[in-house]
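Handout, page 2. Input:
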Amino acid sequence: MHIAAGVPRVLSALALAFNTNLFGALTHYSSGQAAVYFGAGYVELPDVFRIGFITALINTLIWGVVGTVWWKFLGLY
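Output:
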């Protein structure tokens, strides 16, 4: 879909690869590690969602601001 829309192949592959790693901290079932921490009782459910929301905001800031500038510097964007 990216390539058909005219996105460079390297940028498309990197974006898909990186995005798969961003969702591991969002909920108690989003990754194998999160499920173990929650299931073992180390983290309560409200804390998981609070931390996931904070992590999502930080990731959005990093990817939206820093990532855009970095890709521009590399010539990928």
